[in-house]
Amino acid sequence: MKPTIIEARLLDDMERLPVIDAHSHLPIERVRLTEHADALTFYRQYTRLVMFAAGLDEAEFLRMHDPETPLDERFDTFERYYEVIRHSSAARSAAIALGRFYGEDRLTRDNFESITARMRRLYQPGVLYRTVLVEACGIRAVAQNAPPDESDFDDPLMRVVPMIGLGGEWNDYNDLAQQLMTGQIAGEVDDYLEMLRGRLRRLRAAGAIAFKHFVHPYRESDARTARHAWESLRHGERSAARSSVANPLASYLSDELMTEVARLGVPLAVHSGVWGDFREFDPQHFIPYFQRHPDLRFDLFHMGIPYVRAMGRIAANFRNVWVNLCWAPTISTTMAAHALDEWLDMVPTNKIIGFGSDVRWPVEKVYGHLTLARQTIASVLAHRIDRGLLSHGEAIEVSRRWLFDNAAELYALRATDERGPSQQFPCANGPSLSRQASAWRDR
Ligand SMILES: [Zn+2]
Q1: Distance 258 CA to ligand 1 centre (A)
Q2: What is the CA(77)–ligand 1 centre distance, in A?
Q3: What is the tally of structural domains in the chain?
Q4: DSSP 3-state assignment of 415?
Q5: How far apart are CA 238 and CA 241, in angstroms?
Q6: Which of 122, 141, 161 is the C-terminal boundary of a domain?
Q7: What is d(CA 106, CA 10) in angstroms, rounded to the nearest whole number?
């Protein structure tokens, strides 16, 4: 992107601000390093959604990322779809990351091997996350939503946000309904709830900084109707079998678990919008929960895309709701910028969280996603500076709230403020680690 003069000055100062990645699926580094990575990994995660929309099917996608498949064949597929996705925000984030770490703005048959070889040198213990997350991005803490075997409560950088746990670790109510219908769950709804409450308490004691849930249609409920739905499912009746339809069991369990999360004093992160039949994830479904749980702090994700305008109103009307740009600029920088501009009109600046990468596989793309988030913020604030609505200094103050302060307050990560890598990584100044890190930089 070619910034205007005002944007360029803002971006220059914004790059010096500390950052919290307020939503990520990255595993801890040790786990990530056991997984395959090559240059096509840059096009594995959210770019795939644009490719799917263009016609790519699941089998082609898997072959494209299968290192056992001949490179020519993998590239034929990639090139065919790259041509039609290259103008998307998702593809832009890949190009930005390729440029930052490998000096290339697009992947070709000719540079694939050399980029992959250089990736191998970056994907080293003590080097990968430090180089990409800490040094390139200025990230002080990552709010990490990952399965238990990909998390470590002692990791100094990755702070764990487990699922609230309905139906199991993947938090899928539909799994719970299936388990009930197939007799895999014994006991009553109250026993199940007590088990889940105990799990939340244990995870919080271990160091969880929040829990995560998904938006779903709400239905007024109480213990009696929930017990009835529980019994119906056990008898094979499917009336409460899906979370996409407002049902009393999903709502009752969510209500009870939200009460427990509020008691534990941590926020509830909530996926909203984006996926598949996105009507299911309309953030407006959660309004009754915001009202019923005034002491629970909700962090609504992904700008509720495409319900960005409704989400702004939610943050304006409910003091216990924060709104989070995570992933949104990588879906559409334009939609994110327009929405953010509207939000600034009506949402206090302490309620907006400006960055969450939402990255899982292509670690370098955290930088690409962050760059798009910074550009989005800069475009909105520069426009206002241009019209005399705020000064450069005020714009940087707002940026700092959105990139660091608000997430630090909400997730109690204030202690990470201004901490350099040497404190984040107790051994970071030790000879081996710093030598490895600078060796990478010199390449
Ligand atoms: Zn996510």
Answers
A1: 19
A2: 26
A3: 2
A4: helix
A5: 5
A6: 122
A7: 27
Please say if the pLDDT value at position 260 is more than 60: yes
Average pLDDT in the chain: 90
Hey, which of 170-179, 310-319, 422-431 has the most confident mean pLDDT?
310-319
Range of the domain at 93: 38-122
Quote the ligand 1 centre to 23 CA distance (angstroms). Answer: 6
- Average pLDDT value for residue range 361-377: 97
Task: State the distance from the centre of ligand 1 to the C-alpha of 442, rounded, in angstroms.
Answer: 33
> How far is the centre of ligand 1, averaged over its atoms, from the C-alpha of 80 (Å)?
28
pLDDT band at residue 58 under the 50/70/90 scheme: very high
Phi first, then psi: give them for residue 124, nearest 5 degrees: -125, 150
Clarify whether residues 163 and 256 are in a common domain. Answer: yes
Q: How large is the average pLDDT for residues 135-154? A: 96
Contacts of residue 75, Cβ cutoff 8 Å, sequence gap at least 6? 109, 112
Using the mean position of ligand 1's atoms as its centre, give its distance from the Cα of residue 24 in Å: 6
- Ligand 1 centroid from CA 225, angstroms: 32
pLDDT band per the 50, 70, 90 thresholds, residue 443: very low
Q: pLDDT per residue over 213-236, tens digit each?
A: 999 999 998 999 999 989 888 888
Please check whether residue 277 lies inside any domain of the structure.
Answer: yes
**pTM of structure:** 0.91
Rounded CA separation 234/252 (Å): 17
User: Do 105 and 176 share a structural domain?
Assistant: no
* Distance from the alpha carbon of residue 358 to the mean position of ligand 1, in angstroms: 5
Q: Are 210 and 267 in contact (CB under 8 A)?
A: yes
Last residue of a domain, one of 72, 106, 122: 122
